[in-house]
Structure formats: structure tokens, C-alpha cells
Amino acid sequence: MSSTSWTRAPWAAPAAAGALIAAAAFTSFSAGVNPFSSSHAGGGGTTAALTASHVLMTAAAVVAGLPILVKAVRALRHRTIAIDLLVSVAATGALVIGEVWEAAAVTFLFSVGHALEARTMTRTRAALAELVAVAPDVAVVLRDGVQVEVPSVQVATGETVLVKNGAKVPVDGVVTGGAAALVEASITGESVPVEKTEGDRVFAGTVSSGGFLTVRATGVGADTTLARIIHRVEEAQDAKARAQTFLERFSAWYTPAIIVLALVAALVSGDVVLALTLLVIGCPGALVISIPVAIVAGIGRGARDGILIKGGEHLEASARIDTVALDKTGTLTEGRPHLTDVVVLAAGLDRADVLTWAARAEAGSEHPLARPVIEAAVAEGLPVGGLPEHTDPVPGKGVVATLDGRRVAVGNLPLLLAEGISDDGGAAAEVDRLAGLGRTPMVVALDGEVVGVVAVADRVRRDAREMVTRLHDAGVTRVVMLTGDNRRVAEAVAAEVGVVDVRAQLLPEDKLAAIEELQAGGHVVAMIGDGVNDAPALATAEIGIAMGAAGTGVAVETADIALMNDDLLRVPQAIGLARRTVSVMRQNIGVALATVGLLLAGVLTGGVTMAVGMLVHQASVLAVILNAARLLRRRDDAVGAPVTRSTTGAATPQVQPA
């Protein structure tokens, strides 16, 4: 088997070396000789056993040491003095001076450590492996009316794909027919099946748990959300944190320093074994691996939970967040206004009459607040009908429409003045009251007479207050709302969710200035927004967080942290995960430094041999890996006592989307 093959099979070398060491020990013990000593006394039979034992031990050192030497030489070609060089020099020196047991033990233990490290690192990368595993291989496509099974990468954009019960969705697309429940855990981290019907979006890699769908493909192959997630996790797990970069620079100087120290020790003491032992115990293996293994595990855990972290640097920065700035619309609120109030101000009319006139007038309007009025009327079974005979939008005020020969005006109080209506019938008081509740009121007038007021508002997300509470529990000292909405609306939302610092009526450049102001005050800021009008602020904050990124390829690629669904509680969970990861990094560094310090003291006092030093060193490597692997366990990253979720979908207002 070639040296390259040994390198590629982590357990082959230690297994073969272990067998040779066992054979050497058996040969020596059979002849009554200590196989772990370089000096023996005995007759011919004993000498033959000793020779056989030495040959087997030497063979074990060569078998285990060859892959290590290959790695050391490759590193030297790239002008890097790697840990493998220290072990290779120490093992070669031990063989030269006849310490074959020490050479075999050192190379065997180091190769076992490499194999365990490779296995555990593979486990810490399990999130990526799971994502790759859910990628669908085949798709059933409808071509010329016939169902054809093809590789998923051969599906063309726009083709109709069939998703049957139990099958994986092979493409990103839009449902054109049927109904089914899909498990979207691979994309959003949410294991509860989501009902999908006509018009809903679906993602490659999700699994049907019941039902049948026809899907029009909008993203195939590398253009699917799943493919982008896999690419992002691959890059993120290889990205380096600042602490990792520092340790790599440190080890680049530290390793040559150990070699120099060993040479000096040999020259001063004349003890070659001491010098070789210093080479072995000076290996900074646990120190070098302490950071990357924690980063891989932390990012992997996040990926399983639908939290994509761009890399080690951003993971490390997230652990220092003490201020979270967030947009209101679409973040704290659902981003969809709903009808909240219908106030009747005219005798002889009821709630249905006022809402019907308002909805029929708004049917010809393009204003974003028209939709919730129309939807509410339709939901209540009111006769909205077709378009008005005539629609006249009044910019900044509302809309005036002609319906069945009657003039209907829907808008703000200035619209009444424009219509020449002097008697508001108490509308001004109702408008003030509703605005004070954080809603957006619109007066309804029929043939020059005020008949009522309708109000709409954006609903606060159910978990918004709990998110703010958990952020504080996780160590975030300040939560700031940055919104382009009016102050009364913003303050109403802030009061409901528990945010004290409210900054309203902000333009995108104002949000940027607010972030810079917070940073100038020494705060580490995370910004949560929709990535459009919040883009400057997102880019300036230390960490930019995009929510609901499953359907937004740009967000997956550009955000520092992308939350694959709209679950607000993922925000404190991400911060909690980052802090746990950095804590593990520090613990690992402590273990690595303490191990080297104790071993060095043991060598200088004569209590640690080369083999014992390598055994303890490898144990420390395994300890830091296993410590990092704890991050892979699923847990609730919220800190403190459970918080009762709000069950009221209380509405809050909005004049324009912020």
C-alpha cells in the first residue's frame, strides 16, 4: 500500500502498528523479556526474542510514522513547520538511539489521535452531511402529459414536477395544484409539517408527509435554496475566527521555538532523550485544533436549527453583541395590515354598510391600505362587486369613487376639507382615539356626509415580546427599534413588545446614523431588517441578521446570520449559541495550555517519558474535540425561566411599510 493510501485511511496505520506492537510484546513476554525496555540481559533464546521484538517495534514505528512523515514533508514544501515534523524528528531520533518502544509508542499514539480527530471532526460536520443527504436525486416530471423520472439536476425551469406522498421535493417552485404537508426541517429547522396548497412556495429537499402536489419549477440544481445553504455552510465551516487566526500565527512561531529548545536542551544536558521528549510534549496539537473544532460544531448546530452563520469571525462577533437594533414592519410585526375597527357615525347605517361602501370605493385604489379593507369585507361576505364607475385617487389624502351614482370618499381628515365637508360628525375624535391606539384610521363619507371610520393596523408577531425578553436574558443590554413609521405607531408597537428605545420616522440614512451612534458609544450592534431600506444599517452593524431567508437567495449569501424562517426566537437562540461556542473555545485553549505546561514541568523533573507525554498530549486533543462536540447537542438557548407566549394577535398600526 502506498504512503498516500495510508494517509487517506486514518485507521489503517494505527491498526497495523497496534498489531505489530502487540506481536512484539507477545514475542518478548513469551521469552520472559520486557518489551518496553531498550536494555535486556539473556542467553541466545532471549537475544533472539529481543531481536524479533525490536524488529516488530521498529516496523510498528515505521508503519505508524510514515503517514506522519509524509504530512510533515508536504507542510515543509509549503514552508510550514507542522506538528507532524516534531513527531517525525522525535520518532526518528528515538529509533537512532535504540529507543524503539518510545518511537513505536509515539507514532502509534499520534496516529490514533489523528484517526480519532478525523472521526470526531466528521461528526461535528454532520449538519453539512445531513444537508447533502437530503438533496433529492430524482424527480418525476410531467412531459407531454407523461410522467417521466429524471435526475433532479436535469429538471428545467418552468417544468411541472409531481411530488407524491413520502417523496422529496426535487426543486424550488410554486404549487400549481393539489395539497400536501411538507416537512421543512432541512431548510427552516422546523420539524412540524407545513400545509402547502396552490400558490405556496416549496423548497428542494423538503419531504412530503401526506398528499400530492404539482409544482412549477423556479429553481433547479445549484440554484435551489438547499444548494445555497450547503454552499454557505461549507464556506462558513472553513472560515476562521480572529482567535483561530491568532493561534495559527502563534503556532507558526511556537513550533520552531520548541525545536530550538530541544536542540539547546540536548547541547546543554547532553541528554538526547530529554530533547526528543521535549519535541513530543511540545506539540501544540490541542491548542491549534481548539478553535476550529468549536467553530465547526457551533456552525453545524446552527445549520440544523435553521440558523446560517457566515463564518467563524461572525460567530465570534455574535458572542459580543450587547445591542440589538431592529426594524418594525416585517420584523416585530407581520408586515400585513389588517382591518381592526369599523366605527359607525351615521344614523340608519350599520357596520356592514360602512365597511361595504369603504371596500367598494377602495376596489379601484392602488393604495396598500386598500387591500385589508377589501379582504375584510370579502371575508364577511359583503357585496364588494366590481370596480367603481369612476375612481379618483387624491395623493396624500385618500380616494374618491363613484358607486351607483353616489360619491364615496375614503381617506384622512384633510380629504374631508378637500371635499368641502365641514361637519365631520365626530370623525376627528374617533381618528384621534384610534391613532392613539397605534392604528391607521380612514374616514368614510357618502354623498358629502361622514358615515363612519375604518382603521387598519399591522399585527405584532406573537413571539415579539418573548424575543425581547429572551434577548435581555441572553445578555443583550439594549434593544432599539429603528423604523420609518410615524412615532405614535412605533411607540404603540414598542409598548406592546417591551422595547423602550424607539426611533421613528427614519430614512435609510437615518438608520445608518443611528447604528453608527450606537457603535460610537462602545456597543457591539446586531441589526435585524428586511435588507432593502435597511441595507446600509445592516452592512454597518457588526452583525446583520436576515429573517425568513429560505425564500431569498440573496439573504442566504450576504447576511452575516440568516434565519431560514420567520421565528423571532431564533434571534436570541443564535446569540446564545454564539456565546456557548466562544465559551467552549476558551475552555479548549485553557485545557491545551494547561496540558503543555504540566507536561513540560513533568519532563524537567524527570517524571514524564516520551510515550507518556504523547499519551497525555493525545488525550488533551481528544478532550478538546469532545468538549466542542457538546455544542452539537440540541438545547434551548434561551436563558432564564420560560416565558408565556402571547396568544393575542393584537394589531398594531402602520401608515407606510417601514
Automatic annotation (TrEMBL):
* Domain P-type ATPase A positions: 135-234
What are the transmembrane regions? 47-70, 250-268, 274-300, 589-608
Is the DNA damage keyword given for this protein? no
- Gene3D superfamilies attached to this UniProt entry: Calcium-transporting ATPase, cytoplasmic domain N (3.40.1110.10), Calcium-transporting ATPase, cytoplasmic transduction domain A (2.70.150.10), HAD superfamily/HAD-like (3.40.50.1000)
Q: Which UniProt keywords apply?
A: ATP-binding, Cell membrane, Membrane, Metal-binding, Nucleotide-binding, Translocase, Transmembrane, Transmembrane helix
Q: How does it sit in the membrane?
A: Multi-pass membrane protein
Q: Which InterPro entries match?
A: ATPase_P-typ_cyto_dom_N (IPR023299), ATPase_P-typ_P_site (IPR018303), ATPase_P-typ_TM_dom_sf (IPR023298), ATPase_P-typ_transduc_dom_A_sf (IPR008250), ATPase_P-type_domA (IPR059000), Cation_Transport_ATPase_IB (IPR051014), HAD-like_sf (IPR036412), HAD_sf (IPR023214)
Q: Where found?
A: Cell membrane
The similarity comment for this entry is: Belongs to the cation transport ATPase (P-type) (TC 3.A.3) family. Type IB subfamily.
PANTHER family from the xrefs?
Answer: CADMIUM/ZINC-TRANSPORTING ATPASE HMA2-RELATED, CADMIUM_ZINC-TRANSPORTING ATPASE HMA4-RELATED
Which NCBIfam families does the entry mention? Answer: ATPase-IB_hvy, ATPase_P-type
What is this protein identified as? Cation-translocating P-type ATPase
Native species of this protein?
Oceanitalea stevensii
